[in-house]
Amino acid sequence: MKLAKTMLAISLLLFSAGCESAAPPEDGIAVSRESSAAAPNPDTEPAAAETEAAETGETTHENGFAFVYNGEAIYMGEYIDGVVERLGPALDYIESESCTSAGTMKTYYYGGVEISAYAKTETDEYRIFSIILADDSVTTAEGLYIGHTQSDMVAAYGTDYQSLPGVFQYTKNGTGLKFDLEGEEIICITYTLLNI
Hints:
The chain is α+β, with helices and mostly antiparallel strands and 196 residues long.
């Protein structure tokens, strides 16, 4: 149990850095809060990632937390190339040395959103491991955005979270949804793939 708590603390600290790592481009396209909030029902709308995962034997996390951007559900562990194809060209794109896997990390910037992908080895395809909501123009599927409060977070997601001072993380089927707070205000929201 102590090891699990230690691993959670390390995970929360590593992903806390993501909110401060790189700013999205200033000329980004604003995404309405309504357009990012309508999550598909996984019981009635199977995801393309689910079909792909069944065909390849790879794991995506359709039953975990999903982020919806302009009507497109994005899952942790999903191949980034398919997501970029659905969303269209990113406003900006960078590659950097990966601190979590072999090779480079790819980060794509869309209006208010930073999507990061990794490859387990240099020959693997890149998969999404992190989505950061960078401003209040985008929301979680439950309607939370930067500027909401801890009370709003608890009303939307409940009290089943792990926390460190100023950081609250909910987990669901191998994915995490992390809220960074300053005082009572949410200042960063991050979707994560756990156990990379």
